[in-house]
Design goal:
Blueprint: H1 3-28, H2 30-33, H3 54-68, H4 77-97, H5 102-127, E1 132-133, E2 138-139, H6 144-176
Antiparallel strand pairs: 1-2
Helix pairs in contact: 1-3, 3-4, 4-5, 5-6
Length: 187
Amino acid sequence: MSRTRYIAQAGVIAAVYCTLTLLTMQLLQGLAWGPVQFRVSEAFTVIAMLTPAGVPGLALGSVIANALNPAALWPLAGLDVVFGSLATLLGAVWMRRFARRRAIALAGPVIMNALIVPVYLPIMLAGLGFYTVPFFGVNLEGTWLGMYLFGVAAVGVGEAVVVYAVGWPLLAALERIGITGFIGPKG
């Protein structure tokens, strides 16, 4: 693949991922960025299995979307820009590495987001005035370990639902229409 094509693909992927993330944040509000996250845009991370340009494209899209998150307050949003985007980058690298073993590849974004996002999420939520997780009654002012473990479970479950229930069928659909190995039709 030419360098120009690679950069163009990464840019398109970044734009699509960013747009999907911002739409998800607007439509699902607290379910897209709070302690329990169902970011439908995470289903699009499967693109990393189809093209190497997916890795930088997803990472760049995450940086832009996290920087533009209307719910985040700066400088706290910087935590999500750096560490949330790092989780996306590492998840995409994992997906690319294990692309031939689908179930394992799809675990990449789940594991990375579940382990990284809960490290800083309570700080961001407290900065926004959230101290108790609705429906669960989890107090974010408790011990860091308790908050972290709740975050691992909550973010992990939300990510797994989106990546496996929406992302896997999306991957199959993209392959069915001929998008494999690169963005564009077979042949």
